[in-house]
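Render this sequence as a predicted structure.
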Amino acid sequence: MSAPAWVRERTSPWVVAIIIGFALMLLANGVFIYVAVSGADRVVASYRVEPR
């Protein structure tokens, strides 16, 4: 049994580079979000309740 057509075709290096770049971007953003959320200071209650 032969492989499907999309497996037999050679994938362009540009497509592979874009997929790898996108994955690295998502990973970096995830790290930034984790650092920002885990290192955030607590917000005091008066900041949320008192009028400006």
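Summary. The mean pLDDT is 83. The two ends are 72 Å apart (CA to CA).
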